Structure formats: C-alpha cells, structure tokens
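Final report, closing paragraph on structural work. Over the funding period we assembled a curated collection of sequence-structure pairs, and we close with a single example.
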Amino acid sequence: MDRLITHLRHVDLAVPDFDTQLAFYRDLWKLSPETTDTGIAFLAAEGSPEQYQVRLRADADKRVDLIAFGAGTPGDVDALAEKLGRDGVTLVSTPDKLATPGGGYGFRFFDLEGRTIEVSADVATRAHRRVEEGESVPVKLSHVVINSPQPEALVAWYDRHLDFRLSDTLFSPHMGEMMWFLRCNPQHHSLAIARCPHVSLHHASFELRGIDEYMRGTGRLLRAGVEKVWGPGRHLAGNNTFSYFLDPQGNTVEYTTELECLDEDTWHPSLYDFTNPEVSDQWGTANPMSEFVAKKSFNDPDRGVFVAPPV
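Its predicted structure, as stored:
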C-alpha cells in the first residue's frame, strides 16, 4: 500500500476562554502541559511519543485550528505536497521546518471544506512512559471525528487525496448513511466523518490503558460534574468503548479503549443500522442514542473554515 500518511498526531483547538479550557484538559482530562506560553498550550498524553496531542490557543473565535497527521519521511511529505498541488488542493504552506515543539518537516493545506490539515515527518519523540494499571490518564489521542454537510464528497476527497480507506459506515432507515469510519493504518479509524448541517468538530477521542482505567476516568469526570453526553458503552463499529463528555467550550471529547485493529488485506466494510441498539452500544449500559446525543455533538459551526490559523 503506497499510503503516505501513517498516523494521527494532534488536534489543535482555538477557544475564547483559554484558562478554563486549559484547566479542564490538565486537571480533569489528565493531559500533561508540555509547553505553555501566553495564550497557547501544548498538551501531551503520558503514554504517547508524540510531543503533544492537543494544542489550545486563545482566540476570540471558537474553531478547530488544525488536525495533524504523521508521514514516514521528509520525502513522503514532499511527495504528498507535490501530489496535492498537482490535484489543485490549496496549500496553506509549503514543506519546511516546523517551529512547533519537536520541530520536524511538514506543510499545511485545506481539505475540501476548508479545515487546515498538517502533515509532518521527523518530529522528535517525547520521553513517554508505560501507563500503569489503575492509572486513568490518556495513553494517546485515538481518533478525531468531524462534522460535514456534504459527507459523501468529503469521504471521497480523503480517499482520493490522502488514501484514507473506509472501514465501516453507520446508517438509519429514515436518515440514510450518517457516519463513515476512515483509516490511515490498521486501526479501525483515525478519522471519521459525520453528517451534520455545518462544518464543525464532532469529537476527539483519547485511548486509555484498558477497561478498568477507562471506567475510572469516566467516573472521575462524572464525580466532577462534567456534562456526559453518551456512555459508558461499547460500539459495534470499531468494537471500542465510549464515554462522551463536553469540555467547557462545548466540544465533545471521548474516553475510549480497545479500538479494533484490522487486517487491511482482508477487511470488508460493513453497513450498520444504528437504530439497532446493539450497534450503538453492545453492552446496553449507555443512555439510548437519541436526538439529544446527536445534537450535542453537532457543536457550533467552525469559525476557522478556509482561514489558516495564525500559529
């Protein structure tokens, strides 16, 4: 497979209330602030070699600054930039040394709907550690799900330009196809696309060590009074656990574990009817999938469409 993108690196969010957001991700969500400066913070997951997995930036507008992916080599970065340029994709920047923590070599471009995407290689790894039994801290950023008013076209765009492959699709008999799970490696999904009236972040998901740690983390957030959207439960597509919460700015964030790894040579995508309760939650422990749950994850329309972040 000649895929140039290897994995998900980080998701970068801009928020009006920076201090409250930083306190949430540090004190409750349990990410580690690696580098903080006035109005910007780089937050790492304890078990991940990535320099950071969430970047927070103070801004008057709530927006997704960018979603970042890794590539194998600087040559792969150049090859992808050349391919995208040839295909008429708008490059925000050309391949060059990165000034963010860990450095590296990368570039940025707009996807079909104007999200800023970064692809990089040769980023220095962070001193990370094995998360121990009972520690309810994120091991890594698992996946990012984005909302789209034209999801079929967006799925085709990520397939054509970035070689993301479809793992599974969710549908309902009265609404049609609603969510597409896309992979850039054997993990069931690093990116997913949900149907929504507007462009926005659906959720960012963080992997915990195992079921016990995932439940402890879920319980910590419940005890702290963080608004739970959906969970705890276990999805059928991806076979992963889920507990969805709202951060202080109304973004949905998820604790998960045990996301399925696929044999890409033999995998065939399934079409799952999510009105079947066992598709949404195999365990039957989560609150039912409802209009409330769906609307909470619609989020506010993204204010950063076709506007590259200043940093």
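The mean pLDDT is 96. The helical segments are 18-28, 74-86, 151-162, 211-223, 277-280, 291-296. We thank the funder for supporting this effort.
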